[in-house]
Amino acid sequence: MGDLPDIISLMITDYYFLVIAKVFGLLKMRIAAFFLRCYTKASMHNTICSLLSQLYISHNRSSRNVQSLKYLPEAEFMPTLRIPEVIPKPPTFATVEEERCHRKQRLAAALRLFGSLGFSEGAAGHITFRDPEYLDYFWVNPFGMHFSLIKVSDLILVNYRGEVVEGDKPVNEAAFAIHSQIHAARPDVVAAAHAHSTYGKSWSSLSRLLDPLTQDACSFYEDHSLFNDYTGVVLEPEEGKRIAHALEDNKAIILRNHGLLTVGHSVDEAAWWFITMERSCQAQLMAEAAGKPILIDSENARKARHEIGSHHAGWFSFQPLYDLIVNQQPDLLD
User: How does pLDDT run across 125-172, given as a tens digit for each residue?
Assistant: First the structure.
């Protein structure tokens, strides 16, 4: 066997053989690389490299000018990695009954997730979705039932007057006062989510919008509002109208001294925006407690929002959580 410099030199030479063979698919060169391991004279390295360089130049002479292999960037040998864009899309339905069933299952799952993530606060908090047939009716979790116990069969249907028309449990007055007005003001909104989560309500007391501190927070860059007022528990539709007006066309709103509210084109999307917004509040509170965070500049914040803040991205981000909670708690579908 040769000494260490010899071995290193041969390793480099062997590398050239393997790379060239992989690029050009030359079986003979791969075999040659195998036999090369039997040699130990470092003096052979330059000669072999010269031969490889001539082979490479000869192979490419008809298509382009090349430089010596010795100076060819390693990137020349690297294959281009292309990630296929096969992200699933939201399902479509043949009937309103199928769509209603799907939305109810997603709502029950979202409520279970809120419970598992610690978003419950007594009887407070609600997620709604617009009925696909009766567009001024919405489904919601019943008043006084813990998020972690709710099943599809527990959900109630409420009309535009606040009356329960399906189900045998009561409706939260605040849920009706807020959500009925959001659904009325935003025909594009299928679902809305609100809870008194710890970091969301803590951040809301600062009466500030979120900053683009992290990639995840960029989902809300220039796409969330502040309701800069607090007049007590929202029990009147007029207060709900004020909140809907402040929301404008955004995906989320911070209710001062109250908490967060998010909307979406699906239950999945609205629930995901709430979950990631809560975590963004937590991240900013922690970062500012530790020092002075560095913000993402406006241009890159907008780019990030375009990538991860779309309706499709919000829907897709919820899918792993849905699969997880249904696997862990299949009874929610009852």
Answer: 999 999 999 999 999 999 999 999 999 999 999 999 999 999 999 999
Across 75-110, b (16+ Cβ under 10 Å) vs e yields eeeeeeeeeeeeeeeeeeeeeeeebbebbbbbbbbb
- The pairing of strands 252-255 and 138-140 is unpaired
**Structural domain boundaries in the chain:** 4-77, 96-333
Q: Which tokens in the block code for residue 215? A: 């990639």
Cβ atoms within 10 Å of 174's Cβ, excluding its own:
20
- CA distance linking residue 295 with residue 290, whole number of Å: 15
Q: State the Cα–Cα distance between residues 170 and 152, nearest whole angstrom.
A: 15
The residues pairing with 224 across neighbouring beta strands, listed in sequence order, are 252
Q: Which amino acid is at 118?
A: G
Helices in the chain by DSSP H: which ranges?
A: 4-24, 27-36, 44-60, 96-116, 173-185, 198-204, 237-247, 267-290, 298-308, 311-328
- Per DSSP, the three-state class of 52 is helix
213: CB partners within 8 A, 6+ apart: 280, 283, 284, 287, 293, 294, 295, 296
User: Quick check: 77 and 97 in contact, CB under 8 A?
Assistant: no
CATH of domain 96-333: 3.40.225.10
pTM confidence score: 0.76
- Per the CB < 8 A criterion, the answer to whether 265 and 272 are in contact is no
Nearest residue to 329 (alpha-carbon basis) of 110, 90, 101? 110
